[in-house]
Amino acid sequence: MDNRQKEIDNLKDYKYGFSTDIENIRAPKGLNEDVIKFISNIKKEPQWMLDFRLKAFERFKQLKEPDWQKPKYPKIDYQDLYYYSAPKSMDNKPKSLDELDPKLLETYNKLGIPLQEQARLNGIAVDAVFDSVSVATTFKEELTKQGIIFCSMSEAIQKHPDLVKKYLGSVIPTTDHFFATLNSAVFTDGSFVYIPEGVKCPMELSTYFRINASETGQFERTLIIADKGSYVSYLEGCTAPMRDENQLHAANVELIALDDAEIKYSTVQNWYPGDKDGVGGIYNFVTKRGLCKGKNSKISWTQVETGSAITWKYPSCILKGDNSVGEFYSIAITNNHQKADTGTKMIHLGKNTKSKIISKGISAGNSDMMYRGLVDIASKADNSRNFTQCDSLLMGNKCGAHTIPYIKNKNLKSNIEHEATTSKISDEQLYYCNQRGLNQEEAVSLIVNGFCKEVLQQLPMEFAVEAQKLVGISLEGSVG
Amino acid sequence: MLSIESLKAKIDDKEILKGLNLNINPGEVHAIMGPNGSGKSTLSNILSGKKGYEVNGSVTFEGQNLLELETEERAHKGIFLAFQYPLEIPGVNTNTFLKTSINAIKKARGEKELDAIEFLKLIKQKSLELKFDEKILSRQLNVGFSGGEKKKNEILQMSILNPKLSILDETDSGLDIDALRIVSEGVNSLRNKENSFLIITHYQRLLDYIKPDFVHVLKNGQIIKSGDYELAKELEKVGYEDFN
Ligand SMILES: Nc1ncnc2c1ncn2[C@@H]1O[C@H](COP(=O)(O)OP(=O)(O)O)[C@@H](O)[C@H]1O
Ligand SMILES: [Mg+2]
Description:
The complex is a heterodimer of chains A (480) and B (244).
Chain A: H1 2-12, E1 24-26, H2 33-42, H3 47-62, E2 85-87, H4 102-110, E3 124-130, E4 133-137, H5 140-144, E5 149-152, H6 153-159, H7 161-167, H8 178-186, E6 191-195, E7 204-210, E8 221-226, E9 231-239, E10 246-249, E11 252-257, E12 262-269, E13 281-292, E14 298-305, E15 310-313, E16 316-319, E17 325-334, E18 339-342, E19 345-348, E20 354-363, E21 368-377, E22 385-394, E23 400-409, E24 415-424, H9 427-435, H10 440-451, H11 453-456, H12 461-474
Parallel strand pairs in A: 3-7, 6-8, 7-9, 8-11, 9-12, 10-13, 11-13, 12-14, 13-15, 13-16, 14-17, 15-18, 16-19, 17-20, 18-21, 19-21, 20-22, 21-23, 22-24
Antiparallel strand pairs in A: 1-2, 3-4, 5-6
Chain B: E1 2-11, E2 14-24, E3 29-33, H1 40-48, E4 54-61, E5 64-65, H2 71-77, E6 79-82, E7 89-93, H3 94-108, H4 116-129, E8 140-141, H5 147-161, E9 165-169, H6 177-190, E10 196-201, H7 204-209, E11 214-219, E12 222-227, H8 229-238
Parallel strand pairs in B: 3-10, 3-11, 6-9, 9-10
Antiparallel strand pairs in B: 1-2, 1-4, 4-5, 7-8, 11-12
Helix pairs in contact in B: 2-3, 5-6
Bound molecules: adenosine-5'-diphosphate and magnesium ion.
The site of adenosine-5'-diphosphate has 12 residues of chain B, from strand 2 and helix 1.
């Protein structure tokens, strides 16, 4: 009993809550042209990139912060944030991992993401982003042999300007909504992926985002391009120290799939959710959008959202190419005072396009969960199909779950199907499991994992196991 | 092994058990018969640790005060309840549930947990013994199972967990002859000098397959008469109404 309690207590703590004491270079506090020039300058960016940022900033100044979302939050003072923070040791970027600051290596070891050659995760190439910069990318040479580009966004801007120029902002234009536009102005780093024609990427590509510095927003930018007939599976993970301030994370992720290409994008989001009383935690306001540009292309989003104080995001697919396919598999868990307003948009433009939405929302404690989704079938998108399944699971009486599916079908030959269920974990079910020897936590974890199985199955093997544990841990203490 | 003294139970101020006494020794099979609403399921629930009852009296199991143990701790000690109405758990594969269950119990006892292969072997063997269709085990736990399948699944779980005290709450209700045979076989194959059974039933029929050592009649929250197998026959003739 004692050991079990200890184990539970250990799990209950947010185990990634430590912070690394490291010397930083920061941009001056606040948001203005000079800060943007500072960021662009420190990254030695070409003029076109600075212009891109400034154009976005001009636009941003005219935009109003949206407030239609369900979770409300105190007004963010955008002048009271740092927009760039990087470990000082990254000033002259180390050429190899041997030159990397040991403190950074140790941080990633503690997070279970070893970067060193000997200890690397098998079959997974990792790009590690620490606050505003990418600190290391593993397995680079192996990938280069096949012509695959997997590097930090900053490096891509230097080394692959044509690709970046062509595709950056092509899915999320600089004139998009408030947070996306802010990101276009001040984004710092993130990952860049290019898979050449006909290449099936032989390993999982993964980015690990870590917020460390306080009072710092993280604005990363990811761009993935799958050229004709190629395939890539990409996974993103994230953690942050426990701080009692709220930290803003406003990323932009753009995916482009050309003819017959497929991109599978998985997220296991475990940002610090704040404490039991709802103090602190990350505001996760992210824009993720994929463009199925070519015919027969496919983009599949899988997300497991367990962290953050507020999660507000709608990973979307624009199905432009004929016969293209968009998928969205989501598990969102809120506990204590966490809030989530998440879902997807499937925009059917091409003929015979198909989309599938499987959303599993679990709310516990005093939390609040909203599924919000849009399925939009354009008048020319003949024979298109959508299937949506939205299931909510409630634990206790103090949490909420809501579902708002927006549907626009402008094509008579197309078809949208929507199913939704809401259920509760009953005391009788828990009793049954207890009687079979499972304690309360094990019982909840079993039932919840069963509830989200369809989505967990979409994750790459190595991560499915992790995600399963995470699902259990996020709900610790939510019953009994 | 199990000793119940002056057990009283209330729920929402309604008195259900009103001073019940019962002693079960290792290796014994006891049958409890009684009309609907007499408190049979309540007794099973209190023994296996369902929450929500106001309980008085004493229950000791192998010398330990059972009432202060958590539900799962009682399961770890070897108490098993075959539910009158087994619960459906959507999404959870029956095999996964069984494996989680047996390993939770093994872990709590400090025994080595079964790996996937050992588990499958055990399942195969037990299903064969009970002539139980394994295909059911790859379905979601009790979801869409027929009444009989649910009950058989309970018995399969029982035989896999090999409990010291098995409580069967009306496992025979609504079963056809084949299912009844499986249930009885399950019990009989576990029967030995150490394992005990508390079998709750309405009908003498089951007791023709599982010969009990003792039969008790429960009425209005009390055991009003105890005897041997002959008592069951008498009950069947007279009916509960007129039985005093
Ligand atoms: N949760 C409850 N709340 C109120 N009354 C209950 C509850 N559970 C059982 N009872 C009542 O207690 C009595 C005994 O029930 P039960 O133990 O299920 O009887 P049996 O299994 O012998 O048919 C019945 O009258 C029943 O209605
Ligand atoms: Mg009953």
